[in-house]
Each structure stands twice: as structure tokens, then as C-alpha cells.
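Researcher: Predict the fold of Aspartate aminotransferase.
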Amino acid sequence: AETWQNVPLAPPDSIFKLTAAYKTDTFPSKVNLGVGAYRDDNNKPWVLPVVKKAKAILSNDEGLDHEYLSITGLPEFTSAAAKLILGTDSAAIREQRVASAQTISGTGANHLGALFLSRFYTFNGPKQIFVSNPTWANHHAIFRNVGIEPVDYAYYDPKTIGLDFEGFLNALRSAPDSSPFLLHACAHNPTGVDPTPEQWEKIADLFLEKKHFAFFDCAYQGFASGDLDKDASAVRYFEQRGVPMLVCQSFAKNAGLYGERVGALHLVGVDKAAADRIRSQISVLQRSEISNPPAFGARIMALILNDANLFNQWKEDIKTMAHRIIDMREKLHALLTNELRTPGNWDHITRQIGMFSFTGLNAEQSKAMVEKAHSIPDE
Ligand code: PLP
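Model: C-alpha cells for Aspartate aminotransferase follow.
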């Protein structure tokens, strides 16, 4: 018998399926709306000017070798990354209560965080994590891989094309005490719908009341508003309020370092001793998974985060990207409403945040867009 005869054929990843369909399409003005990567005005990937500068510095550094990093990564990267998300005035950082590890971008941070939870979190009942409905599809697979069942909480309301805030609060209330909840720090994927600061306050109240654990996923810091601090405000607010938490951090989008796989996981402990214990176990887990994280992207980010001039340039580059996205939303909104007088309300296009937008189109309408509205116009 064939060794792998029991291996069933897996369905293709829907995003990659869309990309494949896009590639074979001959329509001259085709656009790929599926891919989560920034494009410039020429529909091309954008290498950030600050990244070009950092790369030049690295390539001129004669002393640079290709040794292994330590298991938890490049210390000057992880410590600066922690400050970037938790803030320079973070009490947890000051009190050395943060255990940080460099990860394989945001996906790796989510995985390592999930694995840590699976091993060490005291689940009150079944091993489950509450995730927004909908969420980044990979969240489900990442948690299931480590034996934690994702359970939906109400988040997106198709009627308002906005946040189902009451549904969200009810889910927080009705979950067993001490439940882990996955939260998108900003620029929710895929809806572009974020809670307001006032709503975050009420959410944090319930986390404290119910002793829930906040599993923050932050893949878009700076991308939502163009301001790194503003986009970190929910995470920082939860830390200030003392909600037990961890943060997954990605530099794929905000530094355009998609392929370099540079990210970090930060776990906030109650004191330094707790953080030391957490770090020691994170090291054990990381060792068997990847031994040590990759150096190149971390070196680039360490340069950018630790040098005042490069850091300022990065902030400008982030503004360029975020403001283009905001600008595109405004143009699309104006086109749909003022120019084309498309039936329906399109205000959600500009109300939503970040690079993702729920159009409000249903499956049938989307299909019609692809199959009918898409044809080479008659000459
Ligand atoms: N988390 C969310 C919500 C995302 O949207 C993404 C990327 O699309 C990631 C994590 C991880 O991305 P990466 O592994 O490229 O950093």
C-alpha cells in the first residue's frame, strides 16, 4: 500500500485561490482585493525608504556576522518592540514584568502565544478562546493546532456594517470567568471595525470584573491612523488597567517587511519573578519549534527603533501608507455616492479603519461583480 494513501486533499486557502484567479485573468484593469499587502499608486509593493536606509547601514557593517541569535531573539529588537507597543512610560516595562520573545512575524507570535496558553493557562472549563465573529481566518487554525477551540463572540453587525457592541459585551458577561478573549489591537481584520476609546473602557471593565485574559493581536500598529501611539492605545489602556494580557506584534505591514518574518510576543506578568518564569518557558517552547528566530529583519527593525532619525523617518513612511489608505477610502466613497449615485449607504467605507473593508456586498453581489461587472468595455 502507498505510504500516504490516507492523506486527504486539503481545500486551497481561499485568499491564495483568489490570487491565482487574479493572475490568470487577462482583464487590463484588474485589481486584487484579497491580498493583505500595501500597494503604491502604481499598484506595486512599496519598499519603505527607511528600510532601504537600514539595509544600507547593515550592508556596510563589516563586523556583522551570521551567527545564531539567542532563542528569544535580538535583545535590542525585542526591548524596543515592547516599548513601541506598550509605550515608553509602561509600568510593566519599568517594573521588568514583560517577557518578550522574537517570533516568526505575527503568525509566529500568535502561535507561540497560543502554545503557551495551551501549556500553562488555567482554563476554567473547556480549553477554548473567544474570537471575534469574524476574525482573521488563520486564528482558528492556529488555536486548533495547539488544542484550543476557538469560540465566536459577537462582533460585526451586518445590519449597521459596524460593531455589535451589545453583543460583544454580552459575550464577555456570559463567558465563564477567566476566559481568554482574542482582541485585535487596531484595524480589525477583516472588518475594519474597531471599538471607540469609550467602548474599550467598558470592555476593559468587563475583563476586570470577569477576570478574563486579553490575547491582543497587533498586526497593524500605525496603519490604522498613521500614528503609532494612537493605534497602540487600546493595548496600553488595558495594561494601565491591569488586565492580564499578552500582545502579538508584527512588523510585516507597518514596515513593509512581509517576507522577513519579524515579530514579537510580549507577555505581561504580575512581577519580575513571574516574567522570568514565563520567559524561561517561552524559551523552552521556542527551542523545539525554531531554535532561534531569523536575524535580518530583526536587525533592520532594531536599527529603525533605536535610532532617533531612522525612527522619525519610519513614522513619515507609515503616514504615507496610512494616509494613502484613508485617501483611497474617501475617493471610493465619493465615487460611489456623488459620482455614480450607487443605491444604498456607503458611509462604512470611510468609517472603517485600516487596510481592510467590509463592503457590505453579499455573496451574490460579489459574484456578480467578478463575473458580470468585470469585462473589457466595448470599443
Ligand atoms: N494577525 C492578523 C489579524 C493579521 O491580519 C495578520 C496578517 O494578515 C497577522 C496576524 C500575521 O501576519 P504576519 O505573520 O505576516 O505578521
